């Protein structure tokens, strides 16, 4: 049966450019899994950081080129689960946890499950939470913490069997931080399109120089500090700490010392800038 000329079929194509970055991030996450299975742990950790860069670019490219789509947003979330959920869990298991038996794979599973819960909760709270903060540690930052630790350990020839219980503890805590209610700065209030003075540009150059000296150690320390900043921010900004401020299934609007900035659907972006849909939020 042919379609009537009065009712043309709408072309439901897929935007190439933003989804190309998403696919690159997905490939990096998959490559990290394969590399870890072959014992190339440093390459696997670096691949996760490359996935973070792609994750931060796809949504921004979509908005700059006006190619946002529901497909892109959903594709991005699935790619995030592979790159920042499965890949870090398998990487840390192959690196240090497999000799621990049940304790090892349970620690890796807790991280993986918490990453899935984190992404699902994030997608259901679009337009509800204060856009200045993430509720719980963002999955790309959690993946960077795990990958940075393994990158540093591999570069300095650290024997993972000597720290396997510590690795299991860090993996579990990192997973739990993702599903916590601790508040983490999203840096979305920064005007990236605004003008800055020359000194700021010099400082940015200095940051890149410092990172290039020892990228594994510096990136690892940076994400450890960011992971610890959530509990510190929450405790310092809430007058009376309650259990709901630490864990729960609802968006938290705590009694802060300053008035929260209202969220705006026009300003929403995906964390890591990953969303291709203007009505969906990103974790980076």
| Structural class label | mainly alpha
- Low-confidence segments, given as residue ranges, are 254-281
What overall form do the CA principal axes indicate?
globular
Please tell me how large the radius of gyration is. 20 Å
Q: Termini, distance in Å?
A: 47 Å
Q: What do the pLDDT scores average to?
A: 82
| Major beta sheet, strand line-up | 1-2
SS field, number of helical segments: 8
Residues in helices, as a percent range? 55-70%
β-strand number: 4
Report the order of strands and helices: HHHHEHHEHHEE
Main beta sheet strand tally, sense and closure: 2 strands, antiparallel
Strand fraction equals under 5%
């Amino acid at each position: 049966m042919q379609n009537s000329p009065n009712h043309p079929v709408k072309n439901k194509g897929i935007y190439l450019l933003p989804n190309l970055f998403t696919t690159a991030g997905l490939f990096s996450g998959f490559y990290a899994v394969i590399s870890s299975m072959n014992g190339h742990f440093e390459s696997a950790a670096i691949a996760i950081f490359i996935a973070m860069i792609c994750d931060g670019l796809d949504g921004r490219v979509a908005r700059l080129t006006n190619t946002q789509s529901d497909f892109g947003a959903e594709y991005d979330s699935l790619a995030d689960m592979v790159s920042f959920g499965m890949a870090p869990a398998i990487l840390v298991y192959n690196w240090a946890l497999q000799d621990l038996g049940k304790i090892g794979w349970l620690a890796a599973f807790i991280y993986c499950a918490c990453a899935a819960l984190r992404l699902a909760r994030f997608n259901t709270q679009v337009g509800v939470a204060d856009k200045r903060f993430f509720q719980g540690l963002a999955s790309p930052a959690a993946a960077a913490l795990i990958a940075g630790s393994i990158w540093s350990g591999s570069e300095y020839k650290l024997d993972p069997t000597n720290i396997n219980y510590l690795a299991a503890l860090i993996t579990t805590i990192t997973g739990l931080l993702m599903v916590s209610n601790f508040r983490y700065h999203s840096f979305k209030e920064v005007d990236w399109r605004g003008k800055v003075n020359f000194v700021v540009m010099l400082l940015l150059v200095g940051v890149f120089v410092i990172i290039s000296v020892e990228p594994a150690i510096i990136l690892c320390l940076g994400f450890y500090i960011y992971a610890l900043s959530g509990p510190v921010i929450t405790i310092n900004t809430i007058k009376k700490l309650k259990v709901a401020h630490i864990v729960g299934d609802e968006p938290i609007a705590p009694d802060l010392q300053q008035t929260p900035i209202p969220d705006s659907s026009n300003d929403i972006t995906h964390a890591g800038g990953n969303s291709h849909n203007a009505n969906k939020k990103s974790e980076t």
